[in-house]
Structure formats: C-alpha cells, structure tokens
Design brief:
The complex is a heterodimer of chains A (110) and B (117). Chain A contains no helices and nine strands. Chain A is mostly beta strands. In chain A, strands 1, 3, 4, 7, 8 and 9 form a six-stranded mixed β-sheet that branches. In chain A, strands 2-6-5 form a three-stranded antiparallel β-sheet, with no helix packed on it. In chain A, β7 and β8 form a beta hairpin. The N and C termini of chain A lie far apart (29 Å). Chain B is mainly β and 117 residues long. Helix content of chain B is 0%, strand content 56%. Chain B has strands at residues 3-7, 11-13, 18-25, 33-40, 46-52, 58-60, 68-72, 78-83, 92-100, 103-107, 111-116. In chain B, the strands form two sheets. In chain B, strands 2, 4, 5, 6, 9, 10 and 11 form a seven-stranded mixed β-sheet that branches. In chain B, β5 (46-52) and β6 form a beta hairpin. The N and C termini of chain B lie far apart (39 Å). Chains A and B meet through β7 and β8 of A and β5 and β10 of B.
Chain lengths: 110, 117
C-alpha cells in the first residue's frame, strides 16, 4: 500500500492539459513542501521532472508544472504530446527522515 | 554527467541475503548529497528502501527496518545494499539514486533481482 494516493490512470488528447493529483495527509504533503514528481517509461529508470512542489530541473519543459493545496499536490502537463505517455509518480517527505511514493498514474495520450 | 550503475547477483535463493552495489562516476559526490535505494516489484510502483547521508547516517523505510543495511565505502563513489532473509516478495528491479534535499535527482538504470524459492 502506497503512502500517497494517485489516480491509477489519466488520459488526454494532444494539445490538451491534464492534471494528476497526489493526496497525502497532514503529516506529509500538508506539512512539507518536499513533493517531487517522476516520469517513467516502460523498462526505464524514473526521471525527475519536478521537485519541491513546483521547481523544474534543468532541461525539463515548462509544460510541466506543479502545485500544492492542503494535503494534495498536483502535476499539470499542458500542451499534451504523444511523448508524454508514461507513468508518473509523486513522492513526498513523510517525516522521520522517510520518503513515500504514490502508486503511480498511467498517462495515456489519446 | 553523473552516472550510477547497479551491480550484483541477479538470482538469490530464498532466505539468503541480497547484496547490491552502486558505482558512482562523473558528477558531484560532495557534501549535501545522500544516496538511496528504491525498488519496483513486477508491475508495481516505486518503493523507497532507505538512504545513507553524506555524514554516514542511515535511514530506512520501516517496512525494511529489520532486514536492510545501506553502507558506503567512504569515497562516496560506491555504496551498497544488503537485504536479509529474502522471499519471493523481494523480487524486483532495484534502483540506486542520488538524493538532494529529499528528491532523487539522478538514477541508475536498475537491476532485476529474482528470488528463487
């Protein structure tokens, strides 16, 4: 059982925007701005796309953005492209020097 | 460009100890970075196992607390994972990663480990 809750799947058409939610508790997402997001293609290692809620690493498109409200963090992908089809994981500091992942959300580009 | 490479036995007998090593090349291993292991069971999501701080301190997922040890060789260019008393449930792809301020900024390619019963 994952520490954080994500929808199992989301979908959108090319050019549209989609949002993936990541719900935690008052003890993790609700307290710390230490949420990160990862993109994973089949058979590949995850890749960091957002950290500390809404910061993008060098080389990550500005089509990826993040936000947080209460105990829920969100990843928004705008101008959806076929290459965005992947599994997306959220991760948060959960206190006690521990980290927890969401269960992952499969993004399908229709 | 930082590169991380996992290595170790790909097949482990049940009840034995899984031992993996992550070699770090290129990039920075300076103070401020920590080093972590994450695994992904077949068809499942990511599971944080634990990490070792630049100070040498270690922190583990409570789910593994009694079975796991993460250590480094002092150079910060190699760190290791040991997981004891493995079962089929420990069959997974194991990733090593660099940690900066509670996020994983670089990942190894992963190594598939199968536990044989």
């Amino acid at each position: 059982q994952s520490a954080l809750t994500q929808p199992a799947s989301v979908s959108g058409s090319p050019g549209q925007s989609i949002t993936i939610s990541c719900t935690g508790t008052n003890s993790d997402i609700g307290t710390y701005d230490l949420v990160s997001w990862y993109q994973q293609y089949p058979g590949k290692a995850p890749r960091l796309i957002l950290y500390e809620v809404n910061k993008r690493p060098s080389g990550i498109s500005d089509r990826f953005s993040g936000s947080k409200s209460g105990n829920t963090a969100s990843l928004t992908i705008s101008g959806l492209r076929a290459e965005d089809e992947a599994v997306y994981y959220c991760c948060s500091y959960v206190g006690g020097s521990s980290l927890g992942f969401g269960g992952g959300s499969l993004l399908t580009v229709l | 460009q930082l590169q991380l490479q996992e290595s170790g036995p790909r097949l482990v007998e049940a009840s034995q100890t899984l031992s993996l090593t992550c070699a770090v090349s290129g990039g920075s291993v300076s103070r401020g970075y920590s080093w972590s292991w994450i695994r992904q069971s077949p068809g499942k999501g990511l599971e944080w196992i634990g990490y070792i701080y630049h100070t040498g301190g270690t922190y583990y997922n409570p789910s593994f607390q009694s079975r796991v040890t993460i250590s480094d060789d002092g150079s910060k260019r190699q760190f290791s994972l040991k997981l004891t008393s493995v079962t089929a449930a420990d069959t997974a792809v194991y990733f090593c990663a660099r940690v900066l301020r509670q996020f994983f900024d670089s990942w190894g390619q992963g190594i598939q480990v199968t536990v044989a019963s």
